[in-house]
Amino acid sequence: MTEPNPETDGGIDSGGGSESGTDAGVGTDGTDSELGSDGASTPVPIADPELSADAIERVESVLESDRLADGPEVRAFEDEFATYCGTDEGVATANGTTALHAALEALGVEDGDAVITSPFSFVASANAIRLAGGTPVFADIDPETYTLDPDAVERVLEERDDIVGLLPVHLYGLPADMPALCALADERDLFVVEDACQAHGAAIDGTRVGGFGDAACFSFYPTKNMTTGEGGMIVTDRADVADRSASYVNHGRDTSGTGGYDHVDLGHNYRLTSVAAAIGRVQLERLSQFNRARRENAAAYDDRFADLPLETPTEPAGSRHVYHQYTVRTDDRDGLETTLSEREVGTGVYYETPIHRLPAYETVSTAAATLPRAERAADEVLSLPVHPGLSERDRRIVVEAVRDHFASQ
Ligand SMILES: Cc1ncc(COP(=O)(O)O)c(C=O)c1O
Prior knowledge:
Elements: H1 53-64, H2 72-85, E1 89-93, H3 96-106, E2 114-117, H4 124-131, E3 135-138, H5 150-159, E4 163-167, H6 178-188, E5 191-195, E6 203-204, E7 207-208, E8 215-219, E9 232-236, H7 239-248, H8 274-305, E10 319-320, E11 326-329, H9 333-342, H10 372-380, E12 381-384, H11 392-407
Parallel strand pairs: 2-3, 2-4, 4-5, 5-8
Antiparallel strand pairs: 1-9, 6-7, 6-10, 8-9, 11-12
Helix pairs in contact: 1-8, 2-8, 3-4, 3-7, 8-11, 9-11
The structure holds pyridoxal-5'-phosphate (PLP).
Residues 8-9, 95-97, 121-122, 124-125, 169, 195, 197-198, 219, 221, 232 line the site of pyridoxal-5'-phosphate (PLP).
């Protein structure tokens, strides 16, 4: 079921097909003879979205109903997802990009408004600001967490007086430093939109992401911690933001009306389908289990890589990482990527080019910034398979391939 899509999220590299549920060929000592007797391995994909029979049944019942587009299934998914995040409201959208765009529109971003975001993210984080008419301003990242560095944000805030908001990204499933970023925003009356597209269920001191900013946006793309195929969600405690977002994603309709031709504002069709919502409701029921499996896989890697010349992911005290990606860092990134590809272990580089260096940003004046930490990270990061579909055997194949790479140096 792996679904490579180089157009979103950096694509999925080698190791496409999956037999990751099988356990054939496991060495009896469980340590270093993971390959079959002929030395062959099955590929270990970087992502392997899993849909249960329950999801198929729920989709069938939607298909049998007369509500394929927007409808009660979408409303139920919005309520359930908002409850999961600990927020008052949820507004479903067609994908994570549209969630970000609609949230920024709802917060009133206008032409020329500057919004600080991370240069080390999927391009949609910054694109959403441009789509709303604003200007993305990049601040450098913390080199250990790969998320926006509050000190770097503060330096930008001291230099510019046109910043209206912050858009931190919870990259790879680790929350950005929200207490520090929200304090900076509060002091200056800025809005905060969390890009939580990679971080369903991540938390700081027990508060789930989504509960920190004025709004938070999620993606349900197939590689994410939960999926609806394509899909997105805005969550918020602000009734005004929920109302304006719900209107924006539905052609600017009056949300208190009957859904007819009562267009009170400019809007788009960014709606989620009922089929996608049906899948999402079942995936949400399984999200905790998926995240537990991701965390177990990550802990096993941490343990087996501890003695290698490799930086493994960090989890600051109080933070709960949900390992959308398990991203290691080495100055021999390309060598490690080649070894893993030869061993049919799927890997991904998220992201090879920081946003401010992308051709699409050549004409954006703020892209001229020098952001050395993001630029160095882009040369050194490599993500390994950490998805919940990994078997013990898959994990051992990955560990053995990584260890062999460094043993041969
Ligand atoms: C950090 C981040 N922001 C935004 C998006 C956009 O989400 P989508 O692909 O659902 O539009 C993604 C997903 O790829 C992402 O990883």
